[in-house]
Design brief:
Elements (H helix, E strand, L loop, with lengths): L4 E7 L6 E5 L1 H6 L7 E4 L10 H4 L5 E4 L11 E4 L11 E5 L4 E6 L7 E3 L23 H9 L8 E5 L8 H13 L4 E5 L8 H6 L7 E6 L5 H8 L4 H14 L3 E7 L2 H4 L2 H11 L5 E5 L11 H4 L7 H13 L3 E5 L23 E2 L16 E2 L24
Parallel strand pairs: 2-3, 3-4, 4-5, 8-9, 9-10, 10-11, 11-12, 12-13, 13-14
Antiparallel strand pairs: 1-5, 1-7, 2-6, 6-7, 15-16
Helix pairs in contact: 3-4, 9-11
Length: 396
């Protein structure tokens, strides 16, 4: 697991706060101006480091840790694992704190455009507790970041906080993606509440050719959903938002996090989705991420997957029989009945994905989603064990 941020020694004043890490291949491709790139000198043979190459107007030069060589251009030296930033990645530089953060990692399946720290819900298990701060500046930052992301990037999530709090700013970011990344699948993670305003939902009609929305639903009744999101009236607003998205011809995924209150009515929630929201294209049933607010609500939220296998099987099969695509996220294979393995996905982003000591020697490890890096024993199923069978896992 590679971290997303590290200490750095940054000399001079880089031309931009966001820079694309560039090898000679990025240079030859010519997609980005020199001023938006940091030439990666690490591992570059001395014979290639010609004065003419170094004299180009690079935004900065990325050098080996501890390098004492003087350059005419600003330099960046990263501490820790040198693989934290590789050619194709995008770094955000903080010259005051002398830190660098990876805002895009080439080849990672979990790249996110972080829209805002604000949210209008306070979910019991929120992994990113909201902060009520003014951060509309992120709109311009994200548009700048989008310009540096690989055109061939298959997918990006837009998350927060609640991205729709940016209003027209979210539309601007997505429109920028349509211009720079028209083939990339964008998946906006939203609670859907503000989309109950059809004027906002309509903004996104046709804005990007490959746009979808992931909206959580935690109950088949207002009292249950409103309790989990700790916001009165949220259930009605989210439902109106879902219908407004459908009216705006948007693709929709329903997300159900498998917390104890929702598990008690999981089959009813699945039935509610099939009867009232037949237009959704995908349903994700998700294991809990044990961080943020969830850590304070362990007793109220945690249930061992070994104890809800029957409910999970019933709900999954009910949704599948109704013709809906179903996925199981954040659940290790060894905790699931074998019949559910075809629905399990490797859903945890690479920078926070890990495996336990018990996974050593497991024959299904390469196909298993594993665990969040911050999982602790009290968030771990008693069913975890290495799978020793010499057979191909049917998960996909």
């Amino acid at each position: 697991m590679l971290p997303l941020e590290t200490k750095a020694t940054i000399t001079g004043t880089p031309s931009h706060r966001l820079l694309k890490v560039a090898s000679l291949a990025e240079m030859a491709a010519g997609r980005h101006p020199y001023e938006r790139m940091a030439l990666d000198l690490r591992g570059l043979p001395g014979s290639v480091r010609s004065p003419a190459l170094l004299a180009l107007p690079w935004g900065a030069l990325l050098t080996d840790s501890g390098s004492t060589q003087d350059f005419a251009r600003p330099t960046i030296s990263l501490e820790g694992d040198p693989n934290i930033a590789r050619p194709g990645d995008v770094l955000e530089l903080d010259t005051v704190r002398q830190r660098a953060a990876v805002r895009y990692r080439r080849g990672d399946k979990g790249n996110v455009l972080f829209a805002t720290e604000r949210c209008n819900s306070f979910c019991l298990m929120c992994s990113q507790p909201p902060r009520d701060i003014q951060d509309d500046w992120r709109v311009e930052q994200l548009c700048s970041l989008v310009e540096l992301i690989d055109e061939a990037e298959p997918s990006l999530a837009i998350s927060g906080g609640e991205p729709t709090l940016l209003g027209a700013g979210l539309h601007k970011v997505i429109a920028k993606c349509a211009q720079a990344l028209p083939a990339t699948h964008l998946h906006v993670l939203s609670n859907g509440r503000l989309l109950s305003d059809t004027r906002l939902a309509d903004l996104f009609r046709g804005v990007h050719p490959n746009l979808s929305w992931g909206v959580p639903l935690y109950g088949d009744h207002f009292a249950l959903h409103d309790y989990v999101v700790q916001s009165e009236g949220a259930f009605a607003q989210t439902l109106r938002g879902l219908y407004a998205l459908d009216a705006a011809q948007q693709r929709i995924e329903i997300r159900v996090v498998l917390v104890k209150p929702s598990l008690e009515r999981l089959e009813q929630i699945a039935r509610y989705i099939t009867r009232n929201l037949p237009f959704v294209e995908h349903v994700a049933l998700m294991g809990i991420e044990p961080i943020g607010f969830a850590k304070a609500h362990h007793q109220a939220l945690w249930a061992d997957p070994a104890d809800y296998a029957d409910q999970l099987s019933e709900a999954t099969q009910l949704l599948a029989r109704a013709g809906l695509a179903v996925s199981l996220y954040n659940l290790p294979l060894c905790t699931l009945p074998r019949a559910l393995w075809p629905f399990a996905r490797q859903s945890i982003s690479g920078w926070k994905n890990d495996y336990l000591d018990d996974c050593a020697g497991c024959t299904a490890k390469s196909q298993c989603g594993g665990f969040f890096s911050w999982v602790s024993p009290k968030w771990t199923s008693r069913a975890v064990h290495p799978i020793k069978e010499d057979l191909a896992c049917p998960a996909y």
